[in-house]
Amino acid sequence: MLRIGNASGFYGDRFAAFEEMLTGGPLDVLTGDYLAELTMLILARDRLKDPGLGYARTFLRQAEQCLGLAADRQVRIVVNAGGLNPARLAEAVADLAAKQGLALRVGHVEGDDLLDRAAGLGARPGLLAANAYLGAAGIAACLDGGADVVVTGRVTDAALVAGPAMSHFGWGPEDRDALAGAVVAGHVLECGAQATGGNYSFFREHDVTRPGFPLAEIHADGSSVITKHPGTGGAVTVETVTAQLLYETGGARYAGPDVTARLDTVRVAAQGPDRVRIEGVRGEAPPPTLKVGLNRLAGWRNEVVFVLTGLDIEEKAALVRRQMGAALQQPPAELSWTLARTDHPDAATEEQASALLRLTVRDPDERRVGRAVGAAAVELGLAGYPGFHLTAPPGPGAPYGVFETVYVDAGSVPHTAVLPDGTRRAVAPPAATRPLAPVAAPVLPPPLPAGPTRRAPLGLVAGARSGDKGGDANLGVWARSEDGWRWLAHTLTVDRLRELLPEAAGLPVERHLLPNLRAVNFVLTGLLGEGVAAQHRFDPQAKALGEWLRSRHLDIPEALL
Question: pTM, whole model, 2 decimals?
Fold first, then answer.
């Protein structure tokens, strides 16, 4: 058995988690996931200022505190904190270990940076980063070469777990079921406390004041048990694990560079308090291409929020729009208004009597979204609607980015493991591949017998978790019982989802059924525009999309309620 823990789900996660995981119980490997689409843009802007940067500096501070602990406990560390500069971060970690008198060996993985191939990728102007999502084999090669610490750039999140498992158990590319099982365990761990009760629909059922971070006990056949250190907060249940399994996925085939895991074969079961077993995962050959994330600066944006209080909210909003339209002599290329009716009638406080009118502007020219917009808004102070004020003084325009995805032949990417002794080992792509194709839709369960219904929120009988993939949103919904699944599978169709979420009414929407998880998974194409960095909508990463859906009312069988 191999115990692999997680101490970071994003750049900015709980700083103390590394120390907590190293001191809270036994571990063989500790991983940290720092990279996301937005993070890569942040690191790219760091690199513009200083070519020696481009990595997650938080990890270096954590390492300063925890390298000695890891060495004492013989825990190996695998992180993707290298970002756009894994070689430099690996060098910094090695220097830090030497200063502390630690004989730690540091390896790193590189080859994901394809910025010098921008023209061949069809990238548009403003490109700051182009990174292929590498697999687990480079990490395994570094560990096989004796590394105590492995630093990577852009690898798939699950590779941080699959790589150590591949090395420990000696799996090869043909051990697809085992690899797929490790990938699924890695997907559960990658977002840290989301597997232990964080961001969980039924949070009131557990004490999630300070949830612990998760770990996986992985076995030679790829099966695993998801758990956490004793005495830590939160909970590990079938449903907390199910929620994370649905996060940022699409159909039944979950593709990666090493293997395609069949999510429709995943079986989860409670094995005791805070212990959930995952087994039965089937694996298929990976696709012949690698995903490449392109991050570019696309222009400048600004935002002004007007506060509208008391009576005549709609009329006040219309006046602001007319006045701003007349004042902007050179309007920005994109100008959008959103009125949030947060006001209440006969309110006991002024804030509760107020609504928010948000103006968002974008343009390739910074001048059109900066002072020009701010001045136009401020000049209305004594000439606008009654009670005029803003949530904050308008600021200068800020750059915004766009994330795009392209695919390249896996064999064209120089995946390289740099061992602790400096040896550079090329990692060959899988010899056998399989183009992705949708699976046949499973047979629907029998519908529930007809009976009385009651109008109620969906969230009384179903949980949800949502997130982003570029400009698309993922929304997974699971039922809490078999009868609930029978109702959900027949009720929550694409058409019904569009009715419940009007923002999706005109968008392409796919629905995927996962009966083993009693879940339906939706992909809403284009809901997030050009991705999180473009700030296309109020919730740019669709984090709360699932909770919005759960708050929507529909006719639910009384037998379920």
Answer: 0.94
